[in-house]
Structures are given as structure tokens and as C-alpha cells.
Amino acid sequence: MDIAYQKSINVKYDADVFIAGAGPSGFAAAVCAARCGMKVILSEQSGVIGGSSMLSGVPELMNFDDGVNFLPKGIGREVYDSLGYSHSYSRSWHNVRPEELKLIYDALTLSSGVKVLFYTHLTDVIKEGDKITHAVLSSPEGSFAVSAKVFIDCTGQGFLSFLAGASFLYGDEDGNTMSTTLCSVWAGVDFEKKKSEGDYEKAYREGVFSQYDPILPGIKANFPEVGVGFGNVGHCFKVKDTDTESITDAMFMGRKILSEYETYYRNYVPGAENAVLIKSADFLGIRESRRVVCEYMLTTDTFFMKEAFPDEIGRYSYPVDIHPMSADKNGVKGFAKALSMRHENGESYSIPYRSLVVKGIKNLLVAGRAIGADRGMQASVRVIPCCFITGQAAGTGASISVRDNVPAKDINIEKLKALIK
After folding, report:
1. All domains of the chain, ordered by start, with CATH?
2. What is the pLDDT of residues 157-195, one digit of tens each?
3. Which residues is 392 bridged to in the sheet?
């Protein structure tokens, strides 16, 4: 049954650029747009900037380089340098220390002049023809609207674009997505003694696990000095993050799975005999969601393409990381096949600005996981360093669109390139 619902709400804020979602792409877009002189509103459903590494407990920052070249220039480089990482150019992954990273995000965001709205949920948009005029938000003070000239979707699931009526793709040919993970925090781990993630196959044969899932990224040494690490362990399968009941069931399943891993680590992994599951994440770790249809859809065919797109806004290098689609040996084989698609040192793929420009809506851009791409490319561009790249380009592109009073797809690309060097 449908009901008709109508309500007058206050237009509380007026902005040049409105951004939904304060993950790494939203952070980058907001800071870069503000530095270009724009009045920026950044809305976030939680109380923290940073996205999955903060809310979902994702333990690592993936590689910032291709083995030869540093890739996320600009804001990505600022974050990297602020963390004090060495420039080893060895495709290193770095274990996240959340409070340290939060303060860096906070400082860069506040110093740029971005107006941040925490605990604020995007609930709708208002359009006139092929342009968005307002974002409708819900917060502890009730519902209100924000008007803006350009909107940027950094929700990770293309939610703003979906509300605006944009076309999107989802999952494989049957609408299934790769598995999700409910990440976790662990204590009591002796990381000097723990040299591996143990013998999963033996534990499965002995009845420790309720599903067959041997792909085990494991517990990382985020705070080895006190035996604390973040766990990227276990998968929930056949989850649709656009279905409330599906993600609710996954949260229940994820906590059940983690109790099995606590038994596993204590009994099968040397160095983890005293491991204690301290906390499961508050948000499910979603790897795959909507892919918004943009002016250009980045395809896996371009993964090894050496040439730059004429509207290239950055380059990145990360495998096609499609986690298992099923809890069986076929799922493991599929994961291995996808992950084998990776670059040699010095190789990377080109990302065009057109893959950030939402098709059919003049003033809407998308950055982060939901950019215009096929499944394989989404599985690569979804990680944090690449989100810095696409977020920076979207924020800067939005600023040019506002300043030059042109649709987002018609901005001067050379001007954009000059600003994101």
C-alpha cells in the first residue's frame, strides 16, 4: 500500500557544492572544493570523517604507489605524508590507527572551511528538469533541505544518484554481489609469535566453522605493542546492501561468524591462544554496490591500457579484488581468478573525468566506489587511495562548474588537470 505524504521543510543551508558521504572520497571532494573557494556542505550519517576504515573497521590502507610512482597526488599525498609513512614505492599496505587518521581528516577538513553536518541522513532530492536543486536531509533536529549549484555523490552506494533518478548497474548478471565482511577488533594477540592465519582447512574439517570460507585476510597488527589488531575475517554471502532486510540479516550472521573465529584463533593459530574478540564493527563492510551510469563507463578492458584518456584525472594500480561470491570451492576459484588480474611495477590504469559525471543530470558528480565502471573496475577503484583520486577530481570539477557556470560534463578539462596536479 502506498500513502501520499507532504510536508513543508526549511531550506536551512545554501551552498555552492553539496556532498553526501564523508568517506575518503567525500572528504577529498569537500576539502578540494573548499580550497577552490566554494561554499561546501558535507553531510555524514555518522559522527566521523573517514568512511569504512572508521565505521566498518577496515584494517588497512591499500597501496598508494604502483611500485615506481606515487599515485594519489594532492590530497592523497597530504594524508599519506601526515601519517608519516615512508616513500618506499613497494606497494606497501599500512595498518590503520583510526584515532590518528581521524585527527588528520578533521584538521584538513576544518582548516579548509568545509561545513560538516554529522548525524545527518540523506533522504531525498528535489529536481527541476535535469538538475538537482535541493538535498533533503534528516537529523536530530528534524528534516531540512540544502540548496546547491552542484551535488556530489560520495555515499559509496550511489544513493544520491539513485534518489535523483540516475541509471545504475548492480552486481553480476543475476544481481549478486561479492561477499561482505563484518570487521572486528581483537586483543591478546602476540604478533611476534603469530606468523600466519593458521590451518583453516583442519578447523573446518573439525567442525569449527558453519560455512566453508578459507579466504582469510586475517587479524592485522594495528597496535602490536599492546596486542591489539583489527580483523578482516569471515564473509557474509548473497548480501544486497540496497535491501534493508538483507543487511540486517548479514549483521546477525556476521556476529555469529566472529564467534566461530574466536574459537578458531584460540585453538589453531600460534600467537593467538589468548585472543579476545573485543568488538564487532557498527557498520557492515560492503565491497560492492550500485555502479552509477556515467558519461563514460570504465571497463576491465582498460585495466592494462598504457595510454591516458584525454580527460584523465588520475591513475591507480590495484588488483581486480572480487571477493568470493559463494561459500564453496567455486567461490575460492573465482576469487583467485579475479585477483590474478594485477599490474607489474610501474603499471597503472587511467581514470577519466567522464566516469565521474552522472549521465542525464547536469549538476551531479559521483566519486569513490560508485563511479561509472564495470564490476571488475569497481573492484579495483573502490579502495581508499583511489577514492582520494576520484574525490579530489570531483570536488575540483564541481568548483569549475560553479565558477564557469557550465554543466559538470562541459567543464574545461585542461583547467581541471592544472588544478589537481
Report:
1. 10-172+288-419 (3.50.50.60), 184-280 (no CATH)
2. 999 999 999 999 999 999 999 999 999 999 999 999 999
3. none
